[in-house]
Amino acid sequence: MTYSPKDGFPYYLDLAGNSDCQTLFASTATLSFLETISEEKSTFRYAPGKWSIKQVVGHIVDHERIKMSRAFWLSRNQQLQLWGYDQEALVQNARFAEQSFQELLTDYKNVRKASHSFVCSLSTEQLQIKGKAKNQEISLSDFLRTIIGHELHHINILKEKYL
What we know:
The chain is globular and about 45 Å long. Helices cover 60% and strands 5% of the residues. The protein has 8 helices and 2 strands. Strand 1 and strand 2 (136-139) form a beta hairpin. By secondary structure, the chain is mainly alpha-helical. It has a two-stranded antiparallel ribbon with strand order 1-2.
């Protein structure tokens, strides 16, 4: 079955594939791709009202920060509803346009390094803890994999529509 972004978790899990969390968070493929984009190109929008490449990268980083915070709570077996957020508001209220693309890439690297460290600290038992997100039950492992799937979704859009 083919999923779309509207399908949420199944779509992102499909993009992430079957790799384990440690492997996914250790990958440098996204960073290697982003490092090929120039400062000048990073301000490009493929249509009026669409995010710039800088904003897409900032959104990827914001998303990972938010989701890793939720993953932390779930890893400690805190059974709370993993709420949604307004991505448009977060991007509009950020300083992505003022920052250099290099600064955004440094932020991406730092967040990913912290995420990878956290993922490596989790036990097999912790990765199996289940929680509710968008009224669906999901394991911590799958929840973490959706972070990478979300990133890959945006990288695919950059490749298809921006570059």
